[in-house]
Amino acid sequence: MATRVTGGAKRGAARTTPRNDVHPAGLTRAQLLELYYWMRLTRTLEERLVALYRQTKVVGGLFRSLGQEADAVGSAFALRREDVLSPLIRNLGSMLVKGATPVEILRQYMAKGDSPTRGRELNIHFGDTERGFIGQISPLGDMVPVMAGVTLTFKMRGEARVGLVYVGDGATSTGAFHEGINFAAVQRCPLVVVIENNGYAYSTPTRKQTLAQQFVDKAIGYGVPGEQADGNDVIATYEVTKRAVDRARAGEGVSIVELMSYRRKGHAEHDNQSYVPPGEIDKWARENDPIDRYVARLRSELSFGEAELTEIDARVRHEVDEATEIAEQSPAPEPLDALVGVYAEPAAEVPLWYRRGKRSAVETNERPEGWGTFSSANGSGKAGQVAREND
Ligand SMILES: Cc1ncc(C[n+]2csc(CCOP(=O)(O)OP(=O)(O)O)c2C)c(N)n1
Ligand SMILES: [Mg+2]
Predict the structure, then answer these.
(1) Cα 378 versus chain centre, distance
(2) Among 107, 240, 311, 348, which lies 20 to 30 A Cα-Cα from 42?
(3) 357: pLDDT strictly greater than 90
């Protein structure tokens, strides 16, 4: 049974009366609607970010998860509140499920002074260990050894907690991925490694990433269980991740989960996807949109009414509108804030000579008078000339 997570419980609480006995993956009808809510929230929030990006209010790059909402939401939904996940740029949905709020996300992307990173990071690179998501870093694959360490602490403390780390198809080619997963496997850390196979790593298609038939085959080499699922089916994603999470919690160590999906947008908004074969994106949009697919299933097989879904759509729109208004009013960062929380205060070490100022640094370190080519008194000699010109 899925455990509801921080933040999700309140916003996701759906009022609905059971109409039939169909409970795929043991999910209650409220939880089935909650999955829809998180996917819709992810997409609507990203669409709002695109509008703000075009108005130049989003100041950095914008990384979409269009077409991958089910993979992010379904997998994170399999975790408990006390579990920890390590997201990537396309895991906005996972972070929302774990309690990140739309207003925080908007403030981050708009680099506001009251955003979680005070304008020092411009997308969803922030974390909160209380809510159970770790601040991500850019080097691909590097969060695997980090999460191996995090989950090793769970094991050493005897805590029944699980960690989940997302990696893209591209990240599987890094040394960090290999070292991290091997270490975690050998140590039997309670870790789920989710490989999001979205067909591309920037412009590199998966067939140029690996000769393996499928990424899940790599599980054999690490001696861990591996399962593949349709990442555009939110319930299948939930189920396969839940099995891996249950194994980890039961002391059975690492699992690899490969989620098959497709990146419908470029690496970021600036990428025009000229390397994608014609028609490929449209085909996925037409035939395999995770939200369209889930809506169809909710209406037919699970007999949810139109009103229940439109109510969620309206709630999501309202929440995103409200969050945008708040975030737009947030102040820009204070310039001096750039240094707050970065260096020790007071400084533990005397600043390095080259940070003390150009003139004194050049005079005392680069061309000491004793070298005979420079006179700091009259500035004669070549080096003195350079020093003055650079001031
Ligand atoms: C070690 C390393 N190499 C290269 C990059 C530059 N880079 C950032 S994202 C990216 C593509 C990532 O592709 P993938 O892992 O498939 O994730 P996706 O973007 O598809 O979600 C690259 C090459 C990086 N951040 N780190
Ligand atoms: Mg990829």
Answers:
(1) 57
(2) 240
(3) no
Q: 276: exposed, middle or buried (C-beta count within 10 Å: 0-12, 13-18, 19+)?
A: middle
What single-letter amino acid sits at 146? Answer: V
User: How would CATH label the architecture of 8-334?
Assistant: 3-Layer(aba) Sandwich (3.40)
Q: Which residue has the tokens 């591209």?
A: 170
Give the per-residue pLDDT at 378: 43
pLDDT at 286 > cutoff 60: yes
Q: Which of 66, 68, 143, 202 to mutate to test the pocket of ligand 1 (most atoms within 8 A of CB)?
A: 202
- Identify which of 46, 146, 41 has the alpha carbon closest to the alpha carbon of residue 97: 41
Instruction: Compute the mean pLDDT over every residue in the chain, rounded to the nearest whole number.
Output: 88
Amino acid identity of residue 337, one-letter, is: D
d(CA 35, CA 176) in angstroms, rounded, equals: 32
Residues with CB under 5 Å of ion ligand 2 are: 168-169, 198, 201
Nearest ligand 1 atom, CA 171: 15
Locate CATH 3.40.50.970 in the chain: 8-334
Q: Minimum-distance ligand to the CA of 65?
A: 1
